[in-house]
Amino acid sequence: MNRSSQHPLRELAERTRHAGAVLRTRSLETRARVLYEALWALADKKAPSGRHAREALARTTGLSPEMIDWSLAALPIEQARLLMFAERAEDRVPVDLAGVVLAGNVFVAAIEPITAALLLGAPIVVKASSRDDAMPRLFRAAIREQDPELAEALAVVTFPGGDEDKERALFSRAESVVGYGSDHALSELATRLAPGARFFAHGHGVGVAFVVPPDHDADVTTITDALAIDVCAYDQRGCMSPHVVFVEPTEHVSARDFAIQLARAMDRLGQRVPRGPLPPKVASQQLQWRAIGEAQGGLFEGDGFAVALSSGFRLSPGYRNVVVVECTRDRFASAIDSVSRFVRVLAQNGQWVTAPADCRCCAMGEMQRPRFGETRDGIPLHVAFLKET
């Protein structure tokens, strides 16, 4: 009995690897069109794929139907942007097989690595989270509707993380693997890859914002409305979700004033896009977190959200709980010093402070909406799916 027949995941990896030959017979324009159409099918609530996606994700994500709809509506990537991304690698050779390990906190995180791999001509095996594997399977089904043979270059499997035998088998032929999850889980995964395989780890992180409030109330409202989207997106469960907003007070707007305005903005958004059910464990953490916030100087809460004033950096339990800290721009670096290596994204309403190394910078309202192909944690997206030069 040969080795490949001893483990079905090894056989699956080999079949997916061989499907890369067909994948690469498709022109770049064809691959971009197939991926674009598949994403649009999922985004369109009137299309069969879109309706099925909303039903499936309502069962698996723990998000409200309105949040699922908001998330899916943002999926489509312009074909021109897909082609622009691929042109960076037009003289490079795709890997024979790539792998990705997904976390279960933000369901749309599956889209970018799968899209990048297939677009560049690299077949990919995906180990989905055992907590929520719906999105990668939905994406594969949507691709299959467009091009059944191309879809064979994408395999999706689900099993509990930490299963050494299964992880070794699944990634036995992968030249590169992209991993999302806790630092501990990623360090273990790195020991289970094939000899010589490259590993691109994206551990847990956090987002922060720095605001110098403008003088006019309407402009402050614009900022708080945008920040409310950043906090509420995916119920604040992602590594780019903002947990702390640093506010430099002005003559017209104090940190407390800003916190009140932010709470009002989150209330308005929550009426249109409510939070999903609160898990019991998080409910206990939230109760303690809010009690501390009230004791430290102010808590502004409503149905499914809270904004707490704090004297310093303090992580929240997520689920639409955010801290506002009074901080001048010259104190920002010291205020985040203990956590700077975990800061994945910094949003500002100007060029007020310097971002930590490998941190993505953006405007308010874009923290949870990175553009396809942007560098993540200092790692260009395309390098994981191309052979080393």
Q: What can you tell me about this protein's structure?
A:
The protein is about 40% helix and about 15% strand. The chain has about 400 residues and is α/β, with parallel strands linked by helices. It has two domains: about 5-205, Aldehyde Dehydrogenase, Chain A, domain 1; about 205-360, 3-Layer(aba) Sandwich (Aldehyde Dehydrogenase, Chain A, domain 2), CATH 3.40.309.10. A hairpin with a 2-residue loop joins strand 8 and strand 9. Helix 3 packs across helix 4 (about 65-75). The model has no long low-confidence stretch (mean pLDDT about 95).
Helices and strands in order:
Blueprint: H1 8-23, H2 28-43, H3 48-60, H4 65-73, H5 79-87, E1 98-101, H6 111-120, E2 124-128, H7 134-146, H8 148-151, E3 154-158, H9 164-170, E4 176-180, H10 183-190, E5 198-202, E6 206-211, H11 217-232, E7 242-247, H12 255-272, H13 280-295, E8 299-302, E9 305-310, E10 321-326, H14 332-335, E11 343-348, E12 360-362
Helix pairs in contact: 1-9, 2-3, 2-5, 2-6, 2-7, 3-4, 3-7, 11-12
Report on the biggest sheet: 7 strands, mixed
CATH architecture of the largest domain: 3-Layer(aba) Sandwich
Instruction: Find the structural class using helix and strand composition.
Output: alpha/beta
The whole-angstrom Rg is 22 Å
What tags apply to this protein structure?
389 residues; alpha/beta; Aldehyde Dehydrogenase, Chain A, domain 1; Aldehyde Dehydrogenase, Chain A, domain 2; 2 domains; 5-stranded parallel β-sheet; 14 helices
Question: How do you describe this structure in short?
Answer:
By secondary structure, this protein is of the alpha/beta class. The protein is built from 14 helices and twelve strands.
